[in-house]
Design a protein that fits this description.
The chain is of the alpha+beta class. 41% of the residues lie in helices and 13% in strands.
Length: 286
């Protein structure tokens, strides 16, 4: 599409570039000669055209862009970003922005990673979820990407923000009533209830439990006395688990099947974690 005279131009630069499209405006030099001055570099032609249109609506002199504050940058970015977004997504952006507002009077070019990192550190100290901190970083990265596109900054300092590691949720344990139910279910011959009881008394993870073969069992006088297994961590590898009297008969019964794995399918083969959970583990409680 041909643009009006004096409007500006969008062209694609040669070579392999992350942002190959450049938007340029027409600037009149003191000697009366026009030349094309870049206002930003973009990943797509459409983004470059948007920037050019935004410049025509708000023709801030290019040299003044270096003095833009975070508040002004945020307002410009919102005009482009919020188009077509759902209300819930916009609410998430606005909630994150509230934690940036104390920086709004500062020039974007003068803000560094330490100031942005302080926002995440404050989030953590005040008990915000990791999800909220991720949204804060996402907003900062998006704002600095916009600043980078418009040559306001030379580096996206927001990308250096360090998020805290997600804390692993504590594994739920069976309570006393549930354990009693499992014991009774195993004693009454409910299929695979015995395997749940074995998991409880050995502490194996399901994938470790399903990987056990007859070679992992120590048998004395015809009865199993321990199992050796574990694959998750260095400390947990090949650990020896003494067998509690409440589960010994069940393990002996599984060993008597003669399968390639102690806890095996009908043909003696391996049971996958997914199959075990869906077909054997959860049905015990139904």
């Amino acid at each position: 599409m041909r643009l009006p005279n004096g409007y500006g131009s969008v062209t694609k630069l040669s070579g392999k570039r992350r942002r190959p499209f450049v938007a340029r405006i027409s600037v009149l030099k003191s000697n009366g000669v026009n030349y094309q001055k870049p206002i930003g570099y973009f990943e797509t032609s459409a983004a470059a055209m948007d920037a050019l249109a935004e410049y025509r609506r708000n023709p801030t002199p290019f040299s003044d862009k270096k003095d833009i504050t975070l508040d002004v940058l945020h307002q410009e970015w919102k005009k482009r970003k919020y188009r077509g977004l759902s209300p819930s997504t916009i609410d998430n952006y606005e909630a994150s922005w509230k934690r940036f507002e104390h920086l709004e009077v500062y020039k974007v070019a003068n803000i560094r990673t330490a100031q942005l990192q302080a926002i995440i550190d404050w989030d953590e100290e005040n008990g915000l979820s990791v999800s909220s901190m991720q949204k804060d970083k996402f907003l900062a990265v998006a704002l600095w990407d916009y600043a980078l596109e418009n040559d306001i900054v030379e580096k996206n300092y927001a990308k250096f923000i360090i998020l805290p590691k997600k804390q692993k949720a504590e594994k739920e344990c069976f309570n006393d009533l549930e354990l009693k139910y499992i014991e009774e279910a195993a004693a009454n011959g409910i299929p695979y209830a015995d395997t749940l009881l074995i998991l409880c008394y050995t502490g194996f993870r399901i994938n470790e439990f399903l990987a056990l073969t007859p070679f992992n069992a120590t048998v004395k006088n015809g009865a199993v006395i321990s199992l050796c297994g574990g694959i998750k961590t260095e400390a947990g590898k090949n650990r020896i688990i003494p067998i509690h009297r409440k589960i010994a008969s069940y393990i002996n019964a599984w060993l008597a099947k003669g399968g390639d794995y102690i806890f095996c399918n009908e043909s003696g083969g391996h049971i996958s974690d997914k199959t075990y959970r869906e077909k054997y583990y959860y049905p015990v409680f139904e």
